[in-house]
Q: What sequence folds into this?
């Protein structure tokens, strides 16, 4: 009888040296999982914020392209839609005000690149800041995002 009791005690003593190690692993993996979830949430918030800003830029570009004046085409083939940089900027600002974009975005600005280069394409460049959840204390000013959209004014017969 003494032999099996001695072997059981030896087995328990070997196991006692590792007691509590699984708890450290559980805590470590839990922290790693929480960190991963936090990073994914922050990246997703920035991605969604940029997509929302791009949607606003798309709408503003279409509104600006619709605000054209009639003029002569470069080839002299008749009337054409003509855009002016000041008109594009004014239409962009008006669209953002009407849709309440200032309330949906932090530090929303219309970049100086907004306008037209060729007189037919409205180019809208918007900039804003996105505040990701949970890690906002690491980036209190937010993360800057930019969206560029173009729309072309065109007359069809």
A:
């Amino acid at each position: 009888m003494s032999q099996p009791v001695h072997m059981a005690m030896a087995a328990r003593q070997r196991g006692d040296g590792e007691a509590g190690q699984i708890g450290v692993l559980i805590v470590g993996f839990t922290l790693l999982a929480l960190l991963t979830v936090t990073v994914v949430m922050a990246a997703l918030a920035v991605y969604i914020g940029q997509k929302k800003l791009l949607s606003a830029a798309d709408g503003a570009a279409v509104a600006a392209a619709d605000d054209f004046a009639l003029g002569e085409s470069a080839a002299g083939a008749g009337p054409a839609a003509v855009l002016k940089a000041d008109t594009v900027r004014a239409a962009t600002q008006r669209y953002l005000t009407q849709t309440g974009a200032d309330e949906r975005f932090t530090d929303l600005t219309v970049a100086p690149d907004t306008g037209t280069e060729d007189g037919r394409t409205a180019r809208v460049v918007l900039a804003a800041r996105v505040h990701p959840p949970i890690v906002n204390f690491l980036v209190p000013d937010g993360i800057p995002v930019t969206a560029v959209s173009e729309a072309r004014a065109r007359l069809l017969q």
User: Anything to note?
Assistant: The longest strand covers residues 121-130. Helices lie at 2-16, 21-65, 85-99, 101-104. The radius of gyration is 30 Å.
